[in-house]
Amino acid sequence: MKVDETIALLRQGKQVSEETVYTLCLRSQELLMSEANVTRVDTPVTICGDIHGQLHDLLTLFDKSGGVENNKYVFLGDFVDRGFYSLESFLLLLCYKLRYPDRITMIRGNHETRQITKVYGFYDEIVRKYGNSNVWRYCCEVFDYLSLGAVVDGQVFCVHGGLSPNVTTVNQIRAIERKQEVPHEGAMCDLLWSDPDEVSTWSLSPRGAGFLFGRNEVDQFLHCNGLELIARAHQLVMEGYKEMFGGGLVTVWSAPNYCYRCGNVAAVLRIEDGLSREYMIFEAVQAQDDVGNAIIPTKKPQMDYFL
Amino acid sequence: MDRAVQETDYDAFSCKVSAIAKHYLPRQVSGKEKEEGEFVQLHMAYAQGLKSVSRRAYSKVDRAVQSAQPVMNYGTYLRSVAIDEAIACFLKEHVKSGAEAPVQVVNLGCGSDLRMTQMLSQVPHLKWLDLDFKESVALKSRILENNPLFQRELGPSESVETAGYLTNRYCLTSCDLNDIAQVAEILKKFTTQDCPTLVLSECVLCYMKSAESKALINCIESFYKMGTWISYDPIGGDDSADKFGKIMQTNLRESRHLEMPTLMVYNSPEKYAQRFNTAPHSTSIVTMWQYYVQSVPDEEKMRLKTLQFLDEIEELEIILSHYILAEASWR
Ligand SMILES: C[S@@+](CC[C@H](N)C(=O)[O-])C[C@H]1O[C@@H](n2cnc3c(N)ncnc32)[C@H](O)[C@@H]1O
Questions:
Q1: Tell me, what is an example of a GO biological process annotation in this record (chain B) (predicted)?
Q2: Quick one: which of A154, A288, B23, B296 has the fewest CB in 10 Å?
Q3: Full-prediction pTM beyond 0.95?
Q4: Where would I find the H helices in chain A?
């Protein structure tokens, strides 16, 4: 399998063979296996939120932020589900990672699990595209090896969801046995599911997994670990990003016009040397083919409106 | 165009079947287990009937049911429950126990709505009129006639039309709601002017042009002495930063050739409520998000949460904030 050729195919939203996916997943697993639960990353770096199978918007993201040829990226998870191109989006990131290993960090999101992808579209997408679920299984194997977080320059903690009452230090995360399906409770689950909110202490989450945490929990975690910022994704923000708690936490959302209907803009966060933050906002594009015609996915599932 | 509008009924029905399959519907109320069982049976029977009458329609429904996501199941649950509650509220006000005072329901663009079945058996002095395009009525009446369960519940049809169903309390007949003369004639023929009347339009007005929907509202409100109009519809959103409605129009046009001419006209709850010309104190409107937050009991919220992982509250709020239930009364 030639990575560059596969990248070219994926960028056009074209289907790659089952064998190619198999090889790609196997090689990615080998690479990810050697990564720690929490990866160290240096500035400058671009931090990106949820992608959710919106391939054409992912291409816009790379375009507008300089591209993987010249820049480092941290992706905060939720590569798959909801959009029409979950597979292509996820594989493209894996290819980039194989091609430029030190420029792409991929953190696991709550959608990178067998259970959730069965409900939210990735599984159906694979069966629609391949007529069987093999490719879905290969990808799920990779999900189990994705890291749980990253720390940028020792100062910015990156995670998909948020904090856990079972975790006070980043070192505790390093000790988690991560190579498994995401459990329904406990530290690993919370990191992928929790949300910040205006609460005075740990509270129940309306999502049915993870917790809500407030300013106290964030301040404490930052202080305890000598950090300046928690960068997370997981929640749709109409403006693309939202800082909270005096700038101690930010939510970054990178899927514009989410599910092709929410009308939101997207953002990525660029952290420069010296930790200055810069947000790049971008909007959804109509997917186009090589000659500029609008692509309307042919095997599109039903429209999600109440009619 | 009419075809695209008629086919929206398959969406409405498949959403309901999906919500039933995943146990969102029926809403659980203690002491109502029998009605809840019937509700499921009736819908399953109708789905089977659809299969034998139109394979094409059935396969559409079947496909949609396979892929329905939690957000859709939540929204369908809320739509169904909110309307049921509004109907129950109307009946409670107008049906005095023991008295022979009749009430009637006019269901505009009824599609595959099966509410009439249980309502008619629960409320003795109720009469029910179901109206839709000819093709939709033909489909529905065939399914009702072919199924012993509906035969038993509704009684046999005396309709002389091929497309239609008629008993002394239930009438299903074809009517183009854009044709006001026809509407007036049918109301006169099948309903009573001075009987308390509930008018139901569930995702119907949104497919009509502004002038036609206005004419329909005026015609009906002046025909009945006293009535309550219950209407469920999408609204486009009224803030210049809110792109939901515009995107919805584009998506539906591109994927379905479906138009919603007034989505951006009656685009806020306030503007939607005003289209009924009723007095402000007898007009109320809630978004489905408000209904979820304010009116769904905590136990039901807990129950819903256990059915499927709902991953995205923010998205649910955005979507549900663009659907409303209006109640407008006049006398
Ligand atoms: C989305 S479906 C809703 C069906 C049903 N009210 C429900 O919610 O389950 C819309 C229905 O309205 C009917 N409809 C729309 N415009 C109509 C018109 N001008 N005359 C008669 N029926 C109409 C369609 O045929 C279709 O059955």
A1: methylation
A2: A288
A3: no
A4: 3-11, 18-33, 55-64, 86-99, 114-120, 122-130, 134-143, 170-174, 187-193, 215-225
